[in-house]
Amino acid sequence: MRKPHILQVGPYPEWDEVPLNEAFAVHRYFDASDKARFLAEVGPQVRAIATRGELGASRAMIEACPALEVVSVYGVGFDAVDLVACRERGIRVTNTPDVLTNDVADLGVAMMLCLSRGMIGAESWVKDGSWAKKGLYPLRRRVWGRRAGVLGLGRIGYEVAKRLKGFDMDIAYSDIAPKPYAAEWQFVADPVALAERSDFLFVTLAASAATRHIVGREVITALGGEGMLINISRASNIDEEALLEALENGTLGCAALDVFEGEPALNPRFLSLDNVLLQPHHASGTVETRKAMGQLVRDNLAAHFAGEPLLTPVL
Ligand code: 8YV
């Protein structure tokens, strides 16, 4: 039987590339030097797009594929997929929730600990001889027992809050409405009020037009000069200009960030700050989780072409 033609938007680990090419006729968009020409040539054959959370599928890409039936996202975030364009043509969309939840929550908490206790600088203190020359590493603030806010108590935010319980933290969260499964934690509707009562503010919201810049100047100022912002969601949830200004002038204490506008080409102003922890969008980046993500991408595609229910449909 003829293999369905799919457009692969970005690279996957080797262990995904082999089975993907066994099951499908794969057109590698990211390898094309002239992407517009490539799309014009292969687009008419493409029945599915296999993409990644941060790469998505634009309206132009979708419209270049008149036979497109399904978009399968390697990642939980589907904000970079033009859902309106998909809805207009009845194109299905899938993502890879659950399999990555715990890893993303783990990295968020690890970033909080690492930045709060100054572990990157402390390793330099050992390696550059400062410990021997200057003595004790400068004292930092503790984490346990302090106040944490979780902005967005979905799957990932819930797992972050669960982990913070282990540090005896005073936990509150903000979401559209109180969550029945979170009665043990204080619900604070307003993100500004949540920031005001937090020392650590985790941004774990699914990104959308409605959440764009939800963490703006007001929230950042409310978190304050002793506060830490941790973003493991999408850069679009934060007003990055306001964040940079606050970090540069001390209005915000520090920030631990796994996502950036224009990534991997992040704003160079981040690189000269000493009150940030910068990570390369790798919160879901473990072998086990990335294998599970890749498998789910393929399983959704296989289900679609077999006429069976999709495993993790978004649309
Ligand atoms: C990326 C993510 O998709 O799950 C998401 O939405 O942002 C990440 O897991 C992953 O880095 C693959 O590119």
> What name goes with the CATH superfamily of the largest domain?
NAD(P)-binding Rossmann-like Domain
Strand numbers in spatial order across the main sheet:
8-7-6-9-10-11-12
CATH architecture of the largest domain: 3-Layer(aba) Sandwich
Task: Indicate the structural class.
Answer: alpha/beta
Helices, by number, come to: 12
Cα Rg:
21 Å
Q: Which CATH first-tier class of the largest domain would you pick?
A: Alpha Beta
Major pleated sheet = 7 strands, parallel
Explain the overall architecture.
Keywords: NAD, Oxidoreductase. Belongs to the D-isomer specific 2-hydroxyacid dehydrogenase family. Residues 109-283 form the D-isomer specific 2-hydroxyacid dehydrogenase NAD-binding domain. This is Lactate dehydrogenase-like 2-hydroxyacid dehydrogenase. The chain is of the alpha/beta class and 315 residues long. The protein is built from twelve helices and twelve strands. The protein has two domains: 5-99 and 288-305, NAD(P)-binding Rossmann-like Domain (Rossmann fold), CATH 3.40.50; 101-278, 3-Layer(aba) Sandwich (Rossmann fold), CATH 3.40.50. Helix 1 runs parallel beside helix 12 (287-305) and helix 5 (101-116) packs across helix 8 (155-165). The longest helix has 19 residues, at 287-305. The chain is globular, with a radius of gyration of 21 Å. The mean pLDDT is 98. The structure holds 2-keto-D-gluconic acid. The site of 2-keto-D-gluconic acid has 10 residues, from loops.
